User: What shape does this take?
Amino acid sequence: MSMDTSEKKGAVDVGMVIVNFYSEQYIVNLLNTIKKKRKTDFEVIIVSNSGPFKGAGELKYDFNINIVESKNNIGFARACNMGVKNTNAKYIMFINPDVLITPEIIDRLFEIHENNPDSGAVKPIVGGERIIFKEPHELRPIKDINIGSTFMISRDLFWEIGGFDETYFLWYEDTDIRDRILKTGKPVHMVDNIVLPHVNMCSTYHVPEDMGKFLVKAWMCSHVNYLNSRFGIIASLFWCLAKISKSMYLLAKGTHPEAPHKKYPGTAVLFGLRLVSNFFRIKKYVVFDGIQYFWGGKPKMINM
Assistant: This one.
C-alpha cells in the first residue's frame, strides 16, 4: 500500500527515506523538526515494516510524504530499497526514526553534495545529546565508521552499486554499502561540526521474546555474511565459534545483555551451532519472518 499526503509531484532535490518499525512517534517528532522554512525541495518516504502507519493523521506538512506499507516485516535493507524506488529525488537521505535533524542541516548536506560531485556519500556526526550546527563544515574522509543512521547519497550512485544488499535483514547493511561506495573510488565524507542526537535501537529494545530471538539470528547472520565477504570464511567461522563460547559463558552465569540482538544467549548457542554445521557449503545466511534461507547456488529454505 502506498499513500501520498499531499498533491506535490515530480522530481525533488532530496528524498528522505525512513523505515518504520513501531516507531511512529519518533518519526512524527523527527518530521516536526524539519517543517520550518528551508531552501531544499524535498520529500519524505516512510516505509512501514510494522503494518499500517498509525501516525498518518499527524503528518500535515508543506512537503510531500509518501507512506509505503509492506505486508510484513521485510527487513531494513529491503525496506530502504523500496523507499528509493518510490522517489525520483536527485539525492537520497537515509535517516533513522530516532534521529533529530533541522532544515538547515538538510540544506547544508545537499549543498555539500552539489559542491563536491566526487563525494560518494556525506554524513553528519550522529550520537550527540543535542543538535550542533557550526561553521566551518570541513569534510573528513572515513573508511571505518558506520554510516547507517544518517547519510546522503546520489540516487544514481545508489543504484549503480546495487542499492542495499537485501540479504542483510538488519545490521551491517550500512557497513556493506559504505565499503561498496569506497570501491568505486569515491570517498565517504563525515561533516565535522554537524552533530545529531540519536536514541539508538528505539525500534528493537522493547520487542517481545519471539521477535528478540529472531533478532539474535538476524544479527548473527548479518555478522557472518559481512565477515565472509570481507575477510573470508575462516574469519567468520572463528567469530561464530567465539560467539558460541561467549554465549555459553553468559548462560552459565545467568547473565543476559540488554541489547535485543544479544539478549538470548541460548538462542545464540543453538543458532551458532547450526551456522557452523553449514559453513563450508553456504555462501549467504539470511533470516526472514522466522524462516532461514541459506544462499548457496540457489536459495534453499530450511524451517527453523
